Amino acid sequence: MTPTAIALKDWLAPRRAEMEALLARIVDIDSGSRDAVGIDAVGEALAASLEADGIAVTRFPNATWGGAIRAEVPGRSGGAPVLLMGHRDTVFPKGTVATRPFSRDGDTAFGPGVADMKGGLVVDVFVLRAIKAVGGLDFPVVALFTADEEVGSPSGRAVIEREATGARAAFNAEPGRASGNVVTGRKGGVTLDIEVRGRAAHSGVAHAEGRSAIGALAAKITAIHALTDYATGTTTNVGVIRGGRTHNTVADFAAAEVDIRFLAVAELDGILARIEAILAEDDVPDTVATYTRGPVFMPLEAERSAALFERYRAAAAAVGFAVDGEFTGGCADSGFTAALGVPSLCGLGPVGGAAHTEREWCRLDTLVPRAQALAVTVAGLAD
Predict the structure, then answer these.
(1) Which domains does the chain have, with CATH numbers?
(2) Which among 182, 163, 183, 178 is positioned nearest to 60, based on CA atoms?
(3) How far apart are CA 123 and CA 377, in angstroms?
(4) Residue 208: other Cβ atoms inside 10 A
(5) Is position 89 annotated as part of the catalytic site?
(6) Residues 6 or more apart from 266 whose CB is under 8 A from it?
(7) N or C: which end of the chain has fewer CB within 10 A?
């Protein structure tokens, strides 16, 4: 390791207790998506830790989702920055902390968002503090803490893309896999809200006059599910359906929520074209189907992570642990940076699992080593 890398590693080595304290503090703040007050409270806790070390913090308020927070350690020589990333929202509703606060059993911590991804937020904060403590690097290092990843980053995407454009690399501190691996590939994803309009009628007296929106939707669901192709990695899932009024009324309305996952950016337009063709089919005469597209996550394609992963693997070995890369079907903000052509690596937070459940856990003994490996990797990008 270089002298700078050694200094970063050594600065982080005794920080476990501090890292655990910050993790406990932010886990014990409800910050479910759309809870702007809670999400901003988490942001202020992170900002306070950074500002105490003299790190410049910029806030971008957003009353709907919670604001984005940007922190930077300037580079000694300028040049393209490195971007550290993390989201502050969780999937848990307000009040969860009151019944299930931060807790620990030995080296394992529990609590809402402890792995996904408040542990990663702590790693980002301490990596940035370490870089500041050693006098900075040759290039700027920016940390971006967004507010709404769990619902597709409707406000966060634009901020991420602005900060990532022209960056030399992007590192997303989503939780390390339960296996201990980091994430070298992710699927992209999009949600569609489908609505079908038909014609209501009494199902006993005037059945023939009705045009069943539910019947039309059922046919379309079958066709949409048939688009799943495991060989190409494309999957479709209708996870929510609604419709109708009463059992004895031909339904004039039906709706569905569709989750679509894909491996490559280039696949999305073709998938949507096939969905549009399915919706245009006259499955039940005189019914009309439309859809609204929700936020789109871009995939993290393996070619964008390969070189960074080799650097990270070498850094991890120097720190003292072995690591492999892993693909996941889950989406994350790293897809946005990768789609811009920025080398990107994900899953760099502490090891954790059971995300989005009441059993969510995080290994506290991985906080320091994962921060060290990330810091050493970032420092090595000066080469």
Answers:
(1) 3-187+299-380 (3.40.630.10), 188-297 (3.30.70.360)
(2) 163
(3) 13
(4) 7
(5) yes
(6) none
(7) C
The confidence score (pLDDT) of residue 53 equals 97
Closest CA to 68 of 81, 82, 79, 83: 83
Beta strands in the chain (DSSP E): 56-60, 68-73, 82-87, 103-105, 108-110, 141-146, 169-172, 182-186, 188-197, 201-202, 235-243, 249-250, 253-262, 288-297, 325-328, 344-345, 352-353, 361-363
The catalytic residue among 20, 72, 89, 195 is: 89
Residue 85 sits at φ, ψ, to 5 deg, of: -130, 155
Helix (H) or strand (E) holding 4: helix 3-12
Radius of gyration of the chain (CA): 23
Residue 99 region by backbone torsions, left for phi larger than 0, else alpha for psi between -120 and 50, else beta: alpha
Q: How many CB atoms lie within 10 A of CB 293?
A: 12
Which residues in the chain land under pLDDT 70? 383
Dig out the tokens for 42 from the structure: 């988490």
Give every CB contact of residue 87 below 8 A, 6+ residues apart in sequence. Answer: 117, 145, 146, 147, 148, 149, 150, 153, 156, 333
Sheet containing 344-345, strands listed edge to edge, beginning at the edge strand earlier in sequence: 56-60, 68-73, 141-146, 82-87, 169-172, 344-345
Instruction: Show the tokens assigned to 352.
Output: 């954790």
Cα–Cα distance for residue pair 67/239, rounded to 1 Å? 30
Residue 301 in 3-state DSSP? coil
303 is catalytic: no
- Backbone conformation region of residue 202, classed left if phi is above 0, alpha if psi is from -120 to 50, else beta: beta
pLDDT value for 383: 66
Q: What three-state secondary structure class fits 21?
A: helix
Residue 78, pLDDT score = 82
CA atoms of 21 and 294, how far apart (whole Å): 37
In this predicted model, what pLDDT tens digit does every residue of 123-180 receive, in sequence order? 999 999 999 999 999 999 999 999 999 999 999 999 999 999 999 999 999 999 999 9
Q: 268-280 and 213-225 are packed helices; what angle lies between their axes, rounded to 10 degrees?
A: 150
